[in-house]
Amino acid sequence: MVIHCVRGLLMKMYVAAAAVAVAFGLEFVTPAGAATLTMNLTVDNQFTVYVSSSDATLGTFVGSGNAWQTTYSFSDPLSGPVEYIHVIGVNWTSNNGLWLSPGTLNGTGDNPDGFIGTFGISGSGYEFANGSTTLSTNTTDWRGSPAGTPPYATIPTTWTGATGTPQSYGLNGVGPWGGVSSVSSSAEWIWSNPDNGNFAEFSTTISSVPEASTWAMLLSGFAALGFAAFHLAGKRRPASIAG
Fold first, then answer.
1. What region, left, alpha or beta, does residue 161 occupy, with left being phi > 0 and alpha being psi -120 to 50 degrees?
2. What is the pTM of this model?
3. Which residues have C-beta within 8 Å of that of residue 76, sequence separation ≥ 6?
4. How confident is the model over 138-178, as pLDDT tens digits?
5. Measured between alpha carbons, how far is 168 from 115 in angstroms, rounded to an integer?
6. Which letter does DSSP use for residue 239 in this model?
7. Which of 34, 72, 162, 187 has a beta carbon 3.0–4.6 Å from 143's, enabling a disulfide?
8. What is the pLDDT of residues 2-26, one digit of tens each?
9. Residue 191's pLDDT band (boundaries 50, 70, 90)?
């Protein structure tokens, strides 16, 4: 809790200092092109993955897969101050015509749904929601919501927003899927809660973090602001009245 509070305070200082730097004509540069996002994931049964600069829009298509027994690997450069990984998961069902049996709620029965993956950041200047450069699917740092509309005959192609807390079916290796290669053993099979048995959306946040050189520049901006305020106050001080 203390670590998260300190990190939040530092990020607020980072934003405020950036404004000061701009006001004084100092160059403020985000770590564009300094890092690359790597992804190893799969979904039972099908998925598309995107990277977006806004959690309200789907974003730029990165890749897709339709065989849950296969681990799919992708990479994408990070550029903005905040980025989001967006995943649309599809369970093949009799509703969407991709499977003969209906979807089974909460991953039970003979046609479960699930999403699992491990994600990394190579380079510097960014971190995941857990404050690290490595993140696996879990119920803490990911958001999940049901997707699509009844009768769930059409795979969603638009983003409505993942806002809920997903549910976990267990760690990598749990049945009926077994072990998934190139994915951490601590990764969890997750899905939206509630589960409509057909489609779900998932989202997690990637944030830029200031490096030591950036902090030095921003602190100099704060110092310049303090000096200017002191100098201005001195000019406005009324002259003393002679007795």
1. left
2. 0.77
3. 36, 37, 39, 51, 60, 62
4. 999 999 999 999 999 999 999 999 999 999 999 999 999 99
5. 10
6. P
7. 162
8. 445 445 544 445 545 544 444 544 4
9. very high
User: Whats the size of the chain, residue-wise?
Assistant: 243
Q: Does residue 98 sit in helix, strand or coil?
A: coil
- CA 91 vs CA 19, 46, 166, 184: distances in Å: 46, 7, 16, 23
Question: For residue 134, what are the contacts with CB-CB under 8 A and spacing of at least 6?
Answer: 118, 119, 120, 121, 128, 184
For residue 166, cis peptide bond before it (omega within 30 degrees of 0): no
Residue with tokens 């309200």: 56
The domain ranges of the chain are: 35-208
Residue position matching structure tokens 């099908």? 46
Most confident of 16-25, 27-36, 96-105: 96-105
Residues 6+ apart with CB under 8 A from 88: 47, 48, 147, 155, 156, 159, 199, 200, 201, 202
- Look at residue 100 in the predicted model and tell me its pLDDT: 83
The per-residue pLDDT for 102 is: 78
Which residues have a Cβ under 8 Å from the Cβ of 242 and sit 6 or more positions away? none
Q: CA–CA distance from 44 to each of 89, 103, 164 (Å)?
A: 8, 11, 20
Find tokens 């993140």 and name the residue.
135
- Just give the CATH number of 35-208: 2.60.120
